[in-house]
């Protein structure tokens, strides 16, 4: 038998969450048209936030496109049968990637002048649709408002040269989880792209869920009536991007459940220590379950005593230090717990991933993407 830890992947939950996003974005459009919502990129970078690219391709079949950064993952999407658009969020890393964009029909983001130079020097069999990125204040990737126009004009020249087919406009928000967090950068974006034809592409999960109204107006405001795209990621996997609103309240369902089993149960006497450095020394006798899950599986080593864990469907708490392959749980209140019993570290039937993340001083994104290769993904 193999070690009992698994990441259970619920594709139906992923599809449901995508449906939730589309429902939130639905808008009645005067004059008809069935597709009355912004187009949705399902963001599947980092192996679909740890869920597996092929699972994402299947679960997000209703998305309008898939967005990622890794070229090998993009090719896996094509091999898995994904025929709709693919957006490469960091664009090309070298000239040979432009060839891959043509071959696999990938649309690169252009955020750096070097990427424009690569296009200018390339010989392409077919023109590429590109997403020009504006730095609207986050100061990570993209052109600042003062240079965006000149970069756009270089892309227009590339269009005339047959290397670019369409130019879309894109930006990313630093504080979309805050109530007034997108006002300023969105104004910067609107001002810079005003008068330039092309689709708009602006929002991550937090912007979609917190600033839905503004997102619905993005393309309505464009001078050219072009489509707009949003780019939700984390919410598709059933975690909340907003500190003050739970995944439950947002109508999202957990799509990753980390499960394992009890390896051993023992009583630790008052005053004795548990685990490395005797981090936890109970003041009374406690019953402890040792679980086959450690930081080498991706469970956060810095999860403190008190972090919730479900054993046999009942809530208990982590005690002692998380080690490489094991962690320990106080099951004093659960006398029936025994070797082989099921443990849910997070997900359906256990504590929410957001709760575990919060207890550990991190975010659900890090927990999902940190689940290591030795943890088998299993569909439910
Ligand atoms: C990761 C990413 C997203 C998705 O962000 P979430 O917070 O997971 O919704 C959107 N856009 C870009 C550019 C990203 O890198």
Question: How many strand elements?
Answer: 16
Bound molecules: pyridoxal-5'-phosphate
Overall pLDDT metric: 94
Computed CA radius of gyration, to the nearest angstrom: 24 Å
Indicate the proportion of strand residues: 15-25%
Kindly, what is the distance between the CA atoms of the first and last residues, rounded to a whole number of angstroms?
20 Å
Largest sheet: 8 strands, parallel, barrel
Q: Which residues form runs of ≥5 with pLDDT under 50?
A: none
Order of helices and strands: EHEHHEHEHEHEHEHEHHEEEEEEEHHE
Structural class of the helices, strands and pairings? alpha/beta
Features:
6-stranded antiparallel β-barrel, 8-stranded parallel β-barrel, binds pyridoxal-5'-phosphate, 12 helices, 380 residues
Question: Could you please describe the fold and organization of this structure?
Answer:
The protein has 380 residues and is of the alpha/beta class. Helices cover 29% and strands 22% of the residues. The protein has 12 helices and 16 strands. The strands form 2 sheets. Strands 2-3-4-5-6-7-8-9 form an 8-stranded parallel β-barrel, surrounded by 5 helices. Helix 1 packs across helix 3 and helix 6 runs parallel beside helix 7. The longest helix has 16 residues. The chain is elongated, with a radius of gyration of 24 Å. The site of pyridoxal-5'-phosphate has 12 residues, from helix 9.
């Amino acid at each position: 038998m193999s070690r009992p830890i698994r990441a259970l992947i619920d594709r139906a939950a992923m599809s449901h969450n995508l449906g939730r996003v589309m429902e939130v974005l639905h808008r009645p459009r005067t004059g008809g048209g069935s597709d009355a919502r912004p187009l949705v990129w399902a963001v599947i970078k980092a192996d679909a936030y740890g869920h597996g690219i092929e699972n994402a391709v299947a679960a997000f079949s209703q998305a309008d496109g898939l967005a990622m950064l890794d070229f090998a993952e993009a090719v896996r999407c094509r091999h898995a049968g994904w025929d709709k658009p693919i957006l490469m969020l960091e664009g090309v890393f070298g000239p040979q990637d432009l060839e891959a964009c043509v071959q696999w029909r990938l649309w690169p983001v252009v955020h750096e002048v070097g990427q424009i130079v690569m296009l200018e020097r390339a010989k392409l069999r077919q023109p590429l649709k590109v997403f020009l990125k504006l730095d609207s204040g986050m100061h990570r990737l993209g052109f600042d408002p003062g240079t965006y126009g000149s970069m756009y004009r270089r892309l227009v020249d590339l269009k005339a040269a047959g290397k670019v087919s369409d130019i879309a406009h894109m930006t990313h928000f630093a504080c979309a989880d805050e109530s007034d967090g997108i006002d300023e950068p969105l104004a910067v974006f609107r001002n810079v792209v005003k008068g330039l034809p092309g689709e708009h592409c602006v929002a991550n999960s937090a912007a979609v869920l917190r600033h839905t109204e503004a997102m619905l107006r993005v393309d309505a405001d464009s001078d050219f009536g072009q489509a707009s795209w949003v780019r939700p990621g984390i919410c598709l996997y059933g975690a909340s991007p907003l500190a003050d609103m739970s995944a439950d309240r947002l109508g999202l369902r957990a799509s990753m459940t980390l499960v394992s089993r009890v390896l051993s149960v023992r009583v630790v006497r008052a005053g004795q220590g548990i685990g490395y450095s005797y981090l936890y020394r109970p003041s009374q006798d406690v019953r402890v379950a040792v679980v086959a899950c450690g930081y080498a599986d991706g469970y956060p080593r810095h999860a403190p005593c008190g972090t919730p864990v479900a054993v046999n469907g009942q809530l208990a708490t982590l005690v002692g230090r998380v080690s490489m392959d094991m962690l320990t749980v106080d099951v004093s209140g659960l006398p029936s717990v025994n070797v082989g019993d099921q443990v849910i570290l997070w997900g359906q039937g256990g504590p929410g991933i957001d709760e575990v993340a919060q207890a550990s001083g991190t975010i659900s994104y890090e927990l999902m993407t940190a689940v290591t290769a030795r943890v088998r993904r299993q569909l439910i």
